[in-house]
# Entry
Amino acid sequence: MDILTELNLIGQSPAFLRALDLLQRFADCDATVLLEGETGTGKEIAARAIHNLSPRRDLPFVPVNCGALPDALLESELFGHERGAFTDARESRQGLVASAAGGTFFLDEVEAMSPRAQVVLLRFLQDHVYRPVGGRGFTVSRVRVIAASNADLKELAARGQFRLDLLYRLGVLSVVLPPLRERQGDVELLAEAFLDRLSLQYRRQPVRLHPDSLDWMQRYPWPGNVRELESLVLREFLLSNGPDLRFEPPAIMKVDSTPGAFGTDLTLGFSQTKAEAVRRFECTYLDALLMRARGNMSLAARLAQQDRGALNRLVRKHGIKPENYRRPPFSAR
# Structure
């Protein structure tokens, strides 16, 4: 197994290889990198790869979800605080930046940062100097910053929702990770790699994809990208009992979009058909939402613009467990 496979960089499509070439080149310098791409394309995997291929590989890699940073404790979370700096600050504590200690500081979901957080980050990126809350002296940080976004930051900046000067600071070097639907041939490679790892992890005989399953997998658009493929292969592997993995497409693929049909049996009647359509929508939406929020219900409620209590009730209604979204089954993300 070569180093790129060990780093979960698996693929041979031209679109993927172009992105991979940039990632390898970025690893040789210390400039800030912006990783862009749809949800599930592997932005944290790419960030870890840059770190592990760089001279900083033996130093910490510290990831932070920007949408989960509370404004009230922003500086304290990032830069730490001194004892007595505020109520309940009973002892000094270092922040996330200090935890990176010369390694890599990974800012995920930067599009979710509040206006105030954007100002704080911009100030830090200008000279990498910060002061802990309540501290008297300034500290120079030697961390390398890598940021990631699944939104079009240029469009957000044009609408006044993201600072253009911050975008310039973050995007000194940038790469767009291609969606899985644009990576011809990579679906099979990735699925087989996941199956090999699962066989080792669960100490089971190796299984292979049935040609029928592979056929629709290559035609399916994969809105959740590599993360969706990974989750589907895991589920079907755990339910399989033979040498060939043969399974049905996800429910979202089987929905008929023609007028009057919704992929359901009309003999159920209007009310039941409507209830089934709502159920499918809610499950699909919650799955995508919790994947993006990585199981963080507070962040999920903000992204969905819903009351957290109502969102919790909806999650319980469908038997969904947020904790299952907090750690991907294979890759360090």
The CA atoms of residues 109 and 149 lie 5 Å apart.
